[in-house]
Amino acid sequence: MNTKTLLFTALFLIAFGQLMAQGLTGRAYYKSSSQIKLQMDSTKMAPEQMAEIQAQLKKQMEREYVLSFTPIESNWKQVESLGGGPATASSGGMTMVINTGSQDRILYKNIAEQAYEQEQDVMGKEFLIKDALEPAEWELTGETKKIGNYTAQKATYSRIIDSQRFSTGMTEMEKVKDTIQVVAWFTPDIPVPHGPENFFGLPGLILEIQNSGRTLICEKIELNPSAEPVAIVRPKRGKEVTREEFRTIQEESMKQMMNRYQGKPGDGNQFTIRIGN
Q1: Which of 138, 142, 68, 146 is closest to 107 using CA atoms?
Q2: Which domain of life is it from (predicted)?
Q3: Which of 8, 182, 259, 265 is most deeply buried (CB count within 10 A of its CB)?
Q4: 147 in Cβ contact with 185 (< 8 Å)
């Protein structure tokens, strides 16, 4: 075990001990933004039309989320809003729709049990994933910055994952390697090991995540709210599956789509689908 890992482990244990002693609960509200990069093989779309579609999608894919937490459990879900449906953009007769997920899906994490439960759907079928949490090998950099009223510290991690890619005109899926690089900013001032989405395990609440062109940043925090105490809900909907079983289901769905478009070049417009871990 290297020095960085020993230091991180010590900080985590200290923070977790403080957390249990305080019985800290709260809600953290986040806003997401995404970099949209479209690559289309088309002679019919001018660069300005492509830029217009990208700008429309980027705006519509901004979402708001809430992370509710107790000393060992957390809920992550999208904040309900009128504009929470699929992101849709059009220009010059071209229309693109991106499904950004359902507003009422819940992700539940239990740090003590090192387990999570998550509602997902594939092609209209609902599933409930139940499996062990996958801890990240965070590295503390020593860098700091202010996020709101809190001093945040920087942590990073990277790993290589197996992904599969399919484009119109292809006859079979292509296996590729993707490098995931994540930057997190956490604050020891709120000594909970929670964070947005599947991120966790730092000695303080994660206030900002930068991951594959997507950023989640905390804009408001409520600690020990008395007017509306924090209640953690466990997801219930869908057929229960493991992480690996759900990946297999995703791959089968991708194969069905591949068969539908196999070898078809279409009208000159090309789309690409990629799935990974």
Answers
A1: 68
A2: Bacteria
A3: 8
A4: yes
SS3 state of residue 185: strand
CA dihedral (241, 243, 248, 254) positive or negative: positive
d(CA 108, CA 131): 11
Output the six-digit token pair for 115: 């387990």
Query: Cα(3)–Cα(14) distance, rounded to whole angstroms?
Result: 17
Structural element, H or E, at residue 33: strand 26-34
The parent domain of residue 236 ranges over: 3-37+48-275
Using alpha carbons, select from 112, 62, 107 the residue that is nearest to residue 199. Answer: 107
Task: Answer yes or no: are the C-beta atoms of 212 and 180 closer than 8 Å.
Answer: yes
Q: Which residues pair with 151 in a beta bridge?
A: 146
Domain presence at residue 78: yes
Provide the residue-wise pLDDT of the chain in tens; the chain has 277 residues.
455 544 555 555 555 555 554 689 999 999 998 765 555 555 455 666 666 655 655 555 678 999 999 999 999 999 976 455 555 545 555 555 555 555 679 999 999 999 999 999 888 899 999 999 999 999 999 999 999 999 999 999 998 877 656 555 555 666 777 788 999 999 999 999 999 999 999 999 999 999 988 899 999 999 999 999 999 999 999 999 999 999 899 888 877 766 665 545 444 444 444 444 4
Tokens 């009128």, located at residue: 82
User: What token pair was written down for 142?
Assistant: 């020593």
